[in-house]
Amino acid sequence: MAEQRALVLHDLTWTELKEYLPGIRVAIVPVGSTEQHGPHLTFATDTLRAYEFSRRLAARLFPRALVTTPINLGISPHHMRFPGTITLRPETFMAVVMDVAWSLKQHGITRLFLANGHGGNRAALTLLMARLRDELGVKAAWVSFTAMASDVIREHVKSPLHGHACEGEVSQALYLAPSLVRKDRLTPGAIRPGLAEASPWRAETALSFDAITENGALGDATCASEELGRAIIETALDRVTAFLEDFMADREYPGW
Ligand SMILES: [Zn+2]
Known about the structure:
Blueprint: E1 7-8, H1 14-20, E2 26-31, H2 45-60, E3 65-67, H3 90-106, E4 111-116, H4 122-136, E5 139-144, H5 150-156, H6 167-176, H7 226-248
The structure holds zinc ion (ZN).
Zinc ion (ZN) binds at residues 37, 45-46, 118, 164, 169.
């Protein structure tokens, strides 16, 4: 399939951008992480998934959406016991997003959509929504795009503990950016014994991923397929596109 055109900051010169600027209604910021993803996905997984998702989204909205530089470091303290993971402190992460938003506002872009590929960023992104509005006058929204296809995932991903380096995430990677996947090393999550039987009535504690899985993966990556990745991503793209049409027209709440 021929790739559709998308506005991506990294691929433009400033004079090209200037021509598009009056028609740009939203900036899409891909948000990822640099963290371990088991034996079969590389450290770039969350960032590249978010970036490729954002490019496809911007293609659907061409020329009204601009994909910015991806934020390729996220909040990952729960993966630090695996070598290589680099985490930001939540305050650093939030400062980076605020500075990106401030910069875009100087160029006249005051709607921001954060396409998030990493669960550890969620709490900070939620807190950022009011800060962006109240401190910068920027209208913002964020989504973990995988959650926009949770029904598709529920239907096809049968492992009890899934969500990280599992068949769902590997499938997305196979569809969006196959270079992320070590196809000869697909391995089921090495879940610590006793977890499946543990009481579900637990309060929140500091999570360390190696307490859950020895090899850093959940689910069963051997069940991954490009077709499942396509189903997850294309469903999420349909739904996020519909939301952004409303968001760009300031009608995301009925009655506004
Ligand atoms: Zn991930």
